[in-house]
Write a sequence for this structure.
């Protein structure tokens, strides 16, 4: 079955204290969301609505560095201005997820306090308004150690299992797949980014026609446990 | 604009020596590919058609380990049976890309010798048959150091630049983006995987409605140069 990725227009700028749940509900109206749809929302508008914004005091680069050091659970690598840090959620990413793009002038945006809670709240409201059962992903843009360029990943999840576990299923040739876990939540986040884009001002997308793995997972399911980590 | 991802049905099993270009051309017929479409093909059928298949001699796990060591340019990490290796193309992935899933019994599949050349050949044929100009991505499934689960990435590219460079463009708030390079080829590969899936037997997908970055890039554009690598 084909899959459709629809950009959600009309959300506009979001400021601290804005009622993001109502804004999303309204913007989704014309699309008539259905059970089984996946709503992907970039964390930027979630963080803004939740007030996770700081005002830069002094030199922006110095302020950011000091803030990253204070916010990070640990610093994983550092070269020049670049800091790869572990956030308190366990995500490993540049600047502990703190970012100036799509922020108001003179401010920086932090990650949501609890992206899974943010995803659940959005799901509850949208499910209630439209009488449906949809999946919600909060996305962010991460780098990768050995590949150039950024891709979007899932940092908060509600209404689905973020990983599709194919262990024990057979492929078409009859071979039993062993350690095959697919991070479909990250693939959905990346797919949604193709219609959003940092420069386009579209902060959310609806994905239709994808059968999500059933379950009640979270974004932290996608964090590799430190005991399995060969690269820290 | 919405984006559509269409699974390409009817390709079936591919064996060494098969004329993959004709098989793809035929399978695409009903979809009437258009200029601007992106054709994503999993490397498995490309490798098979190109004869990049080895017959396992002795214990499969021992044979695989020995073969990985022989094929890899370097071994990056190792724990138990798991080998993270650099392929001769520069990709860093498990088992240097050698895989038993979707292989005939008693065989293993290697990466294509030159995935960019494979992508160019497919593009040339499909462009010629349908009188169009499309982009082609050869995909593979890679793990990530800090995130659980696999996602599909682009290892071969033709007819597009794999990275969208937003440097110098402004976001909606007027902030000038600096080091923002988006790996759209990897995002397209991940999006295509959502309709393919290892277990479903669909080895290719057509993505419609995405405006690819113009250019004549390659899969190796996505390999981070060792000089910028903090994690090897």
């Amino acid at each position: 079955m084909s899959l459709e990725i629809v950009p959600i227009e009309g959300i506009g700028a979001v400021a601290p204290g804005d009622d993001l749940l109502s804004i999303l509900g309204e913007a989704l109206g014309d699309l008539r969301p259905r059970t089984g749809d996946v709503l992907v929302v970039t964390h930027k508008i979630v963080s803004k609505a939740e007030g996770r914004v700081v005002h830069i005091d002094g030199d922006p680069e110095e302020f950011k560095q000091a803030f990253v050091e204070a916010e990070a659970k640990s610093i994983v690598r550092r070269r020049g201005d670049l800091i790869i840090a572990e956030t308190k959620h366990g995500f490993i990413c540049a600047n502990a997820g703190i970012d100036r793009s799509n922020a108001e002038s003179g401010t920086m945006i932090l990650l949501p306090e609890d992206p899974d809670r943010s995803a659940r709240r959005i799901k509850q409201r949208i499910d209630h308004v439209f009488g449906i059962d949809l999946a919600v992903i909060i996305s962010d843009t991460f780098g990768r150690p050995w590949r150039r360029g950024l891709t979007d990943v899932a940092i908060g999840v509600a209404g689905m299992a973020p990983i599709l576990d194919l262990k024990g299923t057979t492929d078409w040739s009859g071979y039993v797949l062993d350690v095959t876990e697919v991070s479909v939540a990250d693939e959905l986040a990346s797919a949604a980014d193709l219609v959003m884009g940092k420069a386009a001002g579209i902060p959310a997308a609806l994905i239709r026609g994808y059968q999500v793995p059933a379950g009640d997972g979270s974004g932290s399911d996608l964090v590799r446990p430190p005991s399995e980590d060969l690269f820290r």
In short: Chain A is about 25% helix and 25% strand. Chain A touches chain B through 68 residues (CB under 8 Å).
